[in-house]
Amino acid sequence: MLVAPLLLGVSGQEAFAQSGSFYGGLNLGVSSLEPDISGAPTLSIDQKQDVSIKLNFGYDISEHFSVEAFWADLGEASFSPQGVLSYEALGVGLIGHYFYTGEARTYGSGAIFLKTGFDSLLNASSDIEFEHNNSVSLYYGIGTEYWLSAQWSARLGITTYDKDSSEISVGVVYRFSATKTRKPQSKKSTQHPVERFFKVFAAPRETVKSDEQEIPVVVKPESRTTEPEATQAEERPRPRPQPLKATPAQPIKELQKAPPVKKTVKPAFKDEDSDGVTDRNDECPYTPKGTKVGVDGCAEYRGIWREMN
After folding, report:
1. Which tens digit of pLDDT belongs to each residue from 189-214?
2. Distance of alpha carbon 73 from alpha carbon 123, whole angstroms
3. SS3 (DSSP) at 264
4. Which one of 12, 150, 160, 202 is CB 3.0 to 4.6 Å from 166, fit for a cystine?
């Protein structure tokens, strides 16, 4: 149940192949220990939290899944008025990563991981009697992992080992070989089935044409029996078509020698005596032709007045 969401998330991503990467890690954290003391009414739990140390060793099966074994020292639970019970855990299981950012297992990539498997709790005490209810139990956990490089990564997670023991821890992981190669994939496998369905539904004709192969069609001539007259008519020479006579094109110079178009401009004012002054401004509108006039349209005298009184 824990691994199922990872399988759904990985199916839509590109597949990679990890070339046998072994890794080891160290985690430090805080454990929570709550043993069942219902059979000892005189005892009470004095301290149920302690420092935990965990060593893990694993192997990357693929880009998203790994097999991991671990040993954990979960610390001690102390009782009042007296008594101490220590906890250790040994286990092996499967861990799966879902990468939400960056390329898988490279610098800057982050992933959410789920893990599950079987573990065995090892308890010890020198001053109280105890018994194991389950020699082997199921452990499970969730956390996040961030890749500091291709070989180093940091983890933060929560793990529950049994009903009475759990821990939250942070640690580092070192991979001894971090080379990876990309699996060759066909174009058909990289496309999601839903996308292929909608593509065929939207343009079915184009899809069918791409899959079909053109088959050449061979037509066999039919055997016919012809009469001698028809054979003689076919052997007669046919008249040759006569070439068409093209008219020479006119040179460009002849086309350019077209007669110019004359434009007549009518005066926009009236000048009856044609002295160059419009009738509106002419004070002498009937000046004889050829007479030099002034601005007012009247003749200008250019001689000498000899007799003046």
Report:
1. 445 555 655 565 555 454 434 444 45
2. 10
3. coil
4. 160
Is residue 23 within 8 Å of 173, Cβ to Cβ? yes
* Cβ neighbour number for residue 242 with a 10 Å cutoff: 6
Rg of the chain in Å (alpha carbons):
54
> What are 103-131's pLDDT values in tens digits?
888 899 999 999 999 999 888 888 888 77
- Token look-up 């990890």 returns 18
Q: What would the two tokens of residue 106 be?
A: 């490279």
CB atoms within 10 A of CB 85: 20
Element (H, E) at 6: helix 4-11
Question: What number does CATH give the domain 4-182?
Answer: 2.40.160.20
Please say whether the dihedral angle defined by the alpha carbons of residues 49, 53, 58 and 64, taken in this order, is positive or negative.
positive
Q: Can the peptide bond before residue 239 be classed as cis, meaning omega within 30 degrees of 0?
A: no
Cα–Cα distance for residue pair 187/14, rounded to 1 Å = 12
Q: In sequence order, which ranges of 133-271 are alpha helices (DSSP H)?
A: 187-190, 193-202, 204-211, 228-235, 252-256
Of 202, 248, 60, 269, the C-alpha closest to 145 is 60
CA 253 to chain centre: 65
Identity (one letter) of the amino acid at 77?
A
Length of the chain: 309
Q: Interior CA angle at 163 toward 58 and 135, to 5°? A: 65
Q: Cβ distance 173 to 150 under 8 Å?
A: no
Separation between Cα atoms, residue 134 and residue 116, nearest integer Å: 17
pLDDT of residue 4: 44
Q: Which residues contact 204 (CB under 8 A, 6 or more apart)?
A: none
User: CA nearest 167: which of 176, 156, 175, 178?
Assistant: 156
